[in-house]
Amino acid sequence: MLHVLRCVPRALGSAVVGLRANAPSPQLRQLLQPALRPCARPFGLLGVRAGSARRPGLLRTHGPCACGCDALHTQGDKAFVEFLSDEIKEEKKIQKHKSLPKMSGDWELELNGTEAKLVRKVAGEKVTVTFNINNSIPPTYDGEEEPSQGQKVEEQEPELTSTPNFVVEVTKDGGKKALVLDCHYPEDEVEQEEDENDIFSIREVSFQSTGEAEWKDTNYTLNTDSLDWALYDHLMDFLADRGVDNTFADELVELSTALEHQEYITFLEDLKGFVKSQ
Predict the structure, then answer these.
(1) This model's pTM is above 0.85
(2) Which of 59, 131, 234, 268 has the fewest CB within 10 Å, making it most exposed?
(3) Both ends of the chain: CA-CA distance in Å?
(4) CA distance 154 to 158
(5) Quick one: pLDDT band at residue 261, thresholds 50, 70, 90?
(6) What is the DSSP code (8-state) at residue 13?
(7) Strand order in the sheet with 166-172
(8) How far apart are CA 182 and CA 161, in angstroms?
């Protein structure tokens, strides 16, 4: 019975980009490209629908600004900047972490835009965990839900949580191969009874050469969809012995959520500056 449960296909998640920060592999980036997820944020301007009173004004041709700066300034731009100012103020008000939270277990954090890399050395081994916050927030609901009677809309907005796919790379000192495990957080609807205590799951496992700048997609990749449950458990134990366990997975979600929110606020500020600039 356990074997049957272990063979139930696990949900395919999107994956993070490659682990090579300086020379990432195009093949691996294509393989692990995060999948697009529906918009989860209640972004106010997305509520403007075709045919509304505001749309025709956006389609009119505007000339340079009357102030002589040769820039394009419209009432729509002004309203956009005002909206963004309010949005930035509200997002900073609800920002949980003003600085990124620390990971326990002597993990060193390296950031490259939306990519994050956690590195840890344990007894002659180097463990590297890489994830990307892009498209890491799952949809909060399916379709449009009407608020219940007497309940305010803002009370229904859930806290957004970033659950990125992540890749674990384990190398041994002087070794020529790296063991690569592609992991993800299963969606709630596909959690399996046998794995109810596991916060994350392993999706694929492969070996890659440590001496090459690019990983080869021609190397054999083990998909865990039909993997024997005993082998899968040993792989999970292998990760736990190297610090990648449920505690790590919880802390990674907190770190990723803080980083995603930080980048979102920066994006809003850049967008405001772009629309406002002369």
Answers:
(1) no
(2) 59
(3) 67
(4) 9
(5) very high
(6) P
(7) 108-112, 115-122, 125-132, 166-172, 177-184, 201-209, 221-223
(8) 20
Determine the pLDDT at residue 16.
Answer: 34
236-248 pLDDT, tens digit each: 999 999 999 999 9
Single-letter amino acid, residue 79: A
Q: What is the DSSP string of 207-255?
A: EEETT-SS--TTS-EEEGGG--HHHHHHHHHHHHHTT-SHHHHHHHHHH
Tracing tokens 């505690």 back to the chain, one arrives at 247
Q: How many CB atoms are located within 10 Å of the residue 4 CB?
A: 9
Q: Which of 160, 37, 42 is nearest to 96 (CA)?
A: 160
β pairing state of 201-209 and 177-184: antiparallel
25, containing H or E segment: none
SS3 category, 179: strand
Amino acid letter for position 253:
V
On the question of pLDDT at 10 being above 50, the answer is no
Summarised one tens digit per residue, pLDDT across range 192-209 is 444 458 899 999 999 998
How many Å apart are CA 19 and CA 35, to the nearest integer?
18
In this structure, the chain runs to a length of 278
